[in-house]
Amino acid sequence: MTNAPDFPVLMPVYDVADVYFERGEGAYLWDDKGECYLDFIGGIAVTGLGHANPAIVKALKDQAEKLWITSNIFKNHNTERLAKRLVDISFAGTVFFQNSGVEAWECGIKVIRKYFSSIGQPHRYRVITFNGCFHGRTLTACAAAKTEKMVGGFGPLLDGFDQVAWGDIAAVRAAITNETAAINIEPVQGEGGMRVASKEFMRELRAICDEFGLLLYFDEIQCGMGRTGHMFAYEAYGITPDVMCIAKALGNGFPIAACMATTKAAGGMTAGTHGSTYGGNPLATAIGNAVLDVMTADGFLSEVRRKGDLLWQELEKVLKNHPRVFKEHRGAGMMQGLVCIPPNKEIAAALLQEKLITIWAGENVLRLLPPLIVSDTQIDEAVSIIDRVAGKLEAKA
Length: 397
Fold this sequence. Notes:
The protein has about 400 residues and is α/β, with parallel strands linked by helices.
């Protein structure tokens, strides 16, 4: 069989902008023509510490000259150290490393099912999710999301997920059956439109899980690792989950993710029940440790919160100044979005022309995910570009 002559060598599954980036530093990227851009997506919440961060680069180089991978059938100091540090700063008692967010998310689903099987309740396997959720692109994650763009053409879907309306406690209660095992939620939905779960709602979910013996599962792939101004988003709610997945900023661009759980929830995970060829390799976990070195330093997260407040205040001015372009402002910390009136992709394209990189999200939202190390001056620069582009769009209308 021969390839169609006009079919691209890269599968055409992305809406690709016509720009090639060749290098980055901090919050900036340079293309192959030498043009400089201000990066306010960071690989979609990945480069939390900025491009080519010296501490991360050093950790990569140092470890690359020693050892990249052996196998998880052998012990490794980097991996054990990173797991211990994540346990020490979180609710969790145990960690399993993976390569990507969706792998860590699926590990969490396996942890949940295995827990109920191990306590003699294998009939409890269903997980309640929320409309607008996004957990990745595997068939299991697509089945959880249920949106047409995720599931169209990929049926039949894996059974086991019951989706309810975002923020609707009554709907959550109504969805619980004797087969329900867990509730899975992103404290802040990224792809779903930068929707932030309220404190009351999240506390109700914790109470419901305790009432019915369910596990509470948080997806912090995007909103974790300092993104909201806390190391983990759940800290703002005064509750803890039983299982959680993280990824993205944990490796600052190097593939690494983690499924974290209480020792009770992970009680069914014994030798042979799960595994990964690359997950938790020495190179990835050396970088993860370097990321934690920066993020756990005194004052780092408080500075993220301060800059998040500054970004919020400045975007509020943009919202007020351009009511024909933006109608709502959402988010938390360094994870903010503007609900657009014109198509969000049109606005993102216009901003790209002005050398500001943004990304769209559900509900016609323009998503802003600057690096956590962004400066006040760079925040001002980005907001000025948004303000200027919004003015131009209004003038055309």
